Amino acid sequence: MSRLGAPCLLAARRFGHTVRTPVGDQGAPWKRAARTTAGRATRVVSVDVQVSDLVTIGLLVLLEGLLSADNALVLAILVLGLPRHQQRKALRYGILGAFAFRIAATLFAAYMIRLWWVKLLGAVYLLYLPYNHFWQSGGAEERRAVRAATAWPGLGVFWTTVVKVELTDIVFAVDSILVAVAMSPKLWVIVTGGVLGIIAMRALIGQLLVFVQRYPPLVDGAFVIIAWVGLKLLVEVLHQTHWIGFEFPKWLSLGLIVVIFGVAYFYARKQGPVTLPPEQDEAADLLQSTSHDAGTEEHERS
User: Are residues 35 and 173 both part of a single domain?
Assistant: First the structure.
């Protein structure tokens, strides 16, 4: 028996496999190592799980929920220029595309976290997003304005709108995965946060949409967080390429994100709910009814 506080190894053999789980000292990261022996070949797979990783996943899910609700409202407004009988169909394509592109972007993260130049482009893009949200072209209010549906050459008005919605989906998916990559270098954290964010988007889109609409400072706070993680990612890339000799510690990065969320929440509650313009109310009703109809159809098929 080993001394109290020394690492402890638990071993079990079954069907020719040996699984060893070391439990480190207090405060050390929890690690799982799996060793598979087949003949002379040995493969060791380890997963490093720390408390900060769990905090990061929770923040990713929360951030994904806020941004997804705001983005879904933008998609709904895009289809309001169509005739009423085509709006739900176009929006349903948009919601399905949002799920598909987010899943693809999450899988693509395995490559993004290895390439420094992709991180550099991502950092610049993340820093651009808050600038676009707060200052350029009227910011969020401008992109929420309803515009008449127009046709592109070779496409009808309906399919042109669907293409615009899907292109918007791609941009939102890239935004989402870049934020995840900037917050953690671990693939399993990025994938877990992305999957849970997709589930939250699907299950809670109606409730999140109402909350985000009534309290716009929450979305503003999310874009402030995007600016911070963009700066953090830029510093990380410069440190990785040996341009600078420091990087932000993880406790500072996560702690500041929590503080920004808290300040945005309390400021939003202090300001109180806002009165929505008619087009946003109409878009929200369309989005909620479309999501409800999709959920009803899934329940009937099951």
Answer: no
Q: How far is CA 10 from the centre of its chain?
A: 36
What span, in angstroms and rounded, lies between the C-alpha atoms of 139 and 144?
A: 9
Rounded CA-CA distance 34/30 in Å is: 14
* Same structural domain, 27 and 167: no
SS3 25: coil
Q: Are residues 212 and 140 in the same domain?
A: yes
Backbone angles phi, psi at 41, to 5 degrees: -85, 135
297 is a domain residue: no
33, 102: one domain: no
**Structural domain includes residue 294:** no
Q: What is the pTM of this model?
A: 0.65
- DSSP character string of 207-275: HHHHHHHH-THHHHHHHHHHHHHHHHHHHHHHHHTTS-S----HHHHHHHHHHHHHHHHHHHHHH-PPP
Among 130, 167, 129, 144, residue whose Cα is nearest residue 74 = 144
Is residue 177 located within the same domain as residue 198? yes
Do 56 and 18 reside in the same domain of the chain? no
pLDDT in tens, 56-93: 999 888 887 777 777 777 777 778 788 878 888 888 88
57 and 43 in a single domain? The answer is no
Instruction: Dump pLDDT digits (tens) for 158-215.
Output: 888 888 888 887 887 787 788 888 888 888 888 888 788 777 766 666 666 667 777 8
| 199: containing domain | 50-276
Task: Note whether residue 301 is domain-resident.
Answer: no
Cβ-contact 213, 280 below 8 angstroms: yes
Q: CA 216: distance to chain centroid?
A: 19
If residue 76 lies in a helix (H) or strand (E), which one and from where to where? helix 51-79
Question: Using an 8 Å Cβ cutoff, are 207 and 72 in contact?
Answer: no
Judge if 83 and 71 occupy the same domain: yes
